[in-house]
Write a structure and sequence with these properties.
410 residues, alpha+beta, Nuclear Transport Factor 2, Chain: A, 3 domains, three-stranded antiparallel sheet, globular
Length: 410
C-alpha cells in the first residue's frame, strides 16, 4: 500500500489536504484508491498531514487482506441483517446515544428491505446495492395517513447508503469480503436540488405579526419564537439555553449546550458543531424577553414550592420546571402556525427567517455564519444566495438606477 498527500479545493475556494491511498485488490490485483480527509487546510499544515499518513496506511491494511483472514468469531456465512445487528452493537460503545439511535433507525430501514431476501454478507453485489437504492428512491417512504409507499428523498437514501457502506468497511476488516460493494454505487435519480421546494420564511413585518398572534393565542411560544426569529436558534440550542449562559451585565448570550432526542432525551454539554458554540449580543428587546421569562419562572417556583423541578437552570421549561421534549416544541408550534394561517412555517423556518432578515439588513456572509453558528461556510453561502435570488426580482434593482444615463439612446 502506498500513500500520498494531495490538495483538494472545495466549492467555497478553501484548499484542504487529503491522504490518497493506493492499494492492490486482493482478488483482481488491480490498483485501487481510497481518499481520506485530514481536515487540515493547505496553509502551514503539510507536515501535519504527512504525519497522519503512516497511521492511515496502517488502519487501512485490511483493504489488501485476502479472505483467509476471516475473523474466526464470526460465521463466514452470516446473514447481512444479522451482521448489521453485530455492527450496531460494536458502535454502541463509541457513539453518543442520540447518534447511535440515528444509526439504529437507518439500519432498521435497511433491514426491512433485505430481511426477506436472506442475503449473506458475502453475497451482496454492487448490482444488488444499486437495486436497493433505486427501490428506496421510488418506494422508500410510507405515507402515515394512507399507508401508501412513495419516493424517499435523495438525502435520506444517501444516508442509508452511508450506513451500508460503513457496515461493509467493517466486513472487510473482519475478512468476510474482499472489497466494499457499496462504494462504487451512485445514488441514482434526481439531484437533491430537484427535490427542494421554495424555502418558506417570514419577513420582518410577518415576524412581528406572528409574535403578536402568539402573545394573544399561544403565550408560552412567544419567547421561544422570539429567540428563533431573531437569534436563529436551533430547537436543540433553544432548549439547551441556561441562565448561567446569559450575562445581563455584559449583554451577552453564550450558546454552548443542547437538548436533543432521537428516541432518548439527551442533554449535551456541547453544541451541534464546534462552530455552533458562539457568544451573541443581548440586544434590548431580547433582554426584555428573557427578563420576562425569568420573572415568570420565579413566579412558578413560588407557586409549586417543593414540587418545582429545577432542571439545571434551563431558560425554557414547563410551568413545573420540567424540560420540554424537542418534539413537543415542533408539533405544537406547527399547530400554532396552522392556526395563524402559515402551516408552512415550522420552528426551524424561524431560523431561515432570521437569515433572510439579516441579509436584507446588509449583513455579510461571515457575520451571518457566526450569528447562526454554521460550521461550513458553504451552508451560509447557499442561504445567502437563495435569499438574494428571491430579493433580486422582488423590487426594482440597482440596474434601473445605473442605466438611467443610457435613457433615450434607443
Amino acid at each position: 500500500m502506498k500513500g500520498s498527500i494531495q490538495e483538494k479545493t472545495n466549492k467555497s475556494g478553501k484548499a484542504y489536504y487529503y491522504i490518497r491511498l493506493s492499494y492492490k485488490d486482493p482478488l483482481s490485483q488491480a490498483w485501487r484508491q481510497k481518499w481520506i480527509a485530514t481536515g487540515l487546510t493547505v496553509k502551514n499544515n503539510k507536515r501535519k498531514a504527512e504525519a497522519m499518513m503512516e497511521a492511515a496506511i496502517e488502519e487501512n491494511r485490511y483493504l489488501e487482506l485476502a479472505p483467509e483472514s476471516v475473523n474466526q468469531s464470526i460465521d463466514p456465512d452470516i446473514l447481512l441483517c444479522d451482521y448489521i445487528d453485530l455492527w450496531l452493537e460494536g458502535k454502541k460503545r463509541d457513539l453518543q446515544i442520540s447518534t447511535y439511535e440515528g444509526y439504529e433507525y437507518r439500519a432498521a430501514h435497511i433491514k426491512r428491505y433485505f430481511e426477506p431476501l436472506k442475503y449473506k454478507v458475502r453475497e451482496l453485489s454492487s448490482r444488488m446495492v444499486d437495486q436497493f437504492l433505486k427501490h428506496e428512491l421510488a418506494h422508500g417512504k410510507r405515507d402515515q395517513k394512507t399507508g401508501e409507499m412513495g419516493p424517499l428523498s435523495v438525502r435520506s437514501v444517501r444516508s442509508y447508503k452511508s450506513i451500508l457502506s460503513a457496515v461493509y468497511d467493517q466486513a472487510a476488516i473482519d475478512g468476510l469480503v474482499n472489497s466494499n460493494p457499496v462504494t462504487s454505487v451512485k445514488v441514482h435519480g434526481k439531484s437533491n436540488a430537484s427535490y427542494q421546494r421554495e424555502e418558506a420564511f417570514l419577513t420582518e413585518e410577518e415576524v412581528a405579526d406572528v409574535l403578536k398572534f402568539l402573545k394573544e393565542h399561544y403565550p408560552r411560544f412567544l419567547p421561544m419564537a422570539f429567540m428563533g426569529a431573531y437569534y436563529g436558534l436551533r430547537r436543540s440550542e433553544l432548549l439547551g439555553l441556561r441562565w448561567e449562559s446569559i450575562n445581563f451585565q455584559e449583554k451577552t448570550i453564550s450558546i454552548e449546550n443542547t437538548v436533543v432526542r432521537v428516541s432518548t432525551l439527551v442533554e449535551k454539554e456541547a453544541t451541534k458543531t464546534r462552530d455552533s458554540k458562539r457568544k451573541l449580543y443581548l440586544f434590548p428587546a431580547a433582554e426584555e424577553c428573557l427578563s420576562a421569562v425569568r420573572q415568570e419562572q420565579d413566579d412558578y417556583k413560588s407557586f409549586f414550592g417543593d414540587a418545582y423541578r429545577d432542571t439545571k437552570g434551563y431558560v425554557f421549561t414547563r410551568e413545573d420546571g420540567s424540560r420540554y421534549d424537542p418534539s413537543w416544541v415542533s408539533k405544537n408550534f406547527e399547530k400554532a402556525m396552522k392556526a395563524y394561517g402559515r402551516p408552512d412555517i415550522t420552528y426551524h423556518k424561524l431560523r431561515h427567517s432570521c437569515a433572510s432578515m439579516l441579509i436584507n439588513r446588509g449583513w455579510d456572509i461571515k457575520q451571518l455564519q457566526y450569528w447562526l453558528g454554521h460550521a461550513d461556510p458553504e451552508t451560509t453561502l447557499k442561504i445567502y444566495s437563495h435569499y438574494n435570488k428571491k430579493r433580486l426580482n422582488a423590487t426594482e434593482n440597482d440596474l434601473s438606477e445605473i442605466s438611467r444615463a443610457a435613457a433615450g439612446l434607443f
